[in-house]
Amino acid sequence: MKSLFAVLILLITLAILPFALDWRSPLLVAVRPWALTGLIGVPVLLILAQIWALSTSGPERRSIKVINVMGLLVAALALTSTVYLEARFYRMRHQVLHADPANLEKLGRHLVVGYRNLAEVRELVRLRAIAGVFISGHNVRGETIAEIRKQIQGLQQIREEQGLPRLWIATDQEGGMVSRLSPPLTRMPQLSEVVEKHADAVGRKRAVMEYAATQGRELAEIGVNLNFAPVSDLNYQLNNPNDHYTRISQRAISRDPVVVAQVAGWYCAALEEAGVRCTLKHFPGLGRVLEDTHLNHANLTTSVAELANTDWLPFRALMSQTKAFTMLGHVRLTAVDADRPASISPAVVSGILRKDWKYDGVLITDDFSMRAIYHGGPGVENGAIEALNAGVDLILVSWDPAQFYHVMYALLKADQQGKLNRQILQRSDQRLANAVQAVPH
To answer: So what's the pLDDT on residue 48?
Structure first.
């Protein structure tokens, strides 16, 4: 019986160890308060159980005592790791919140963050530490349009009193499965359904423009001025049962790049008419990618020549013809940079987009809370530095707002050490200033 008890305790301890070693993972954000209690309380109980087992042991077999000692050490490691990571986070958070205001403003203009606590994001706005706020479903659940508008107006009022440009108030309101603000906003079908119902160009354009005008009017009414839509990836009908979040085949407009460019152009024009900036996503294209970058690393192995003649046609056409932002996906474009996600790759951002395409519009990353960044290559902190040095303008931290402190801490430190390219940042600042000036108040 004692041997079974010792083995059981050891197995429980080993089961919680991976969570303790990566306790600040974005995957745990929804259960973080309870997870912290468990990752401290359970190891403490296991340590006490192992101490008790060792202190009351008789002349049992030596193997049982070895198992007890192993369990004790693993439980101690789990407890120590959790406490250390939590202490490190709050130390970073404290340093960010008490950093030089000028430095916070200088670097904060490159960050858009989500929130789970309105008071916390309001404080970040007050500190001039961010340039935008991402609003998702959990922020508006149970709220009326008037209540959401009042909250956003309160944030914008802080900026107005500071004499700073208006915040980017962003959301994911594509229609269909990705409709973060529905309810209270109207839930609309995915854009591909509208396209499929209208074969003729005249009817299709009218339907798309009406669709986008409705979205734009409702978004503008509550104060949103940046929508992360339309999806401009091509639809290759790839279906991966383990793809729980990306699911491009259910979100893309069409497989035909001409149709995608045309429809996305109409959509962006209607949104801009309402005072809402659109976003082309997710360059370099996720239509051919089987993996889900929310949960895994992902590779786009198609050649540059093939992509240029297919997937990149809508992006290149609209990036030169509209005021749209472009969102960079966290997929690795292996033909160009097999080591880094495209969102932080100098070869992709500076090489292809800025140099080859001569694109001088705003580039924003996909969420830095995603596993392809968090557990990919340089990670969140170094990834933020590489992204800005590559020529990215805005870094999005939406699902897990706590990652903002990791990003800002790393940027503050890099700026102090001279590791941020000042010329690239200055050009980025000018792009952002131009974009803000074009947004109606």
So the answer is: 92
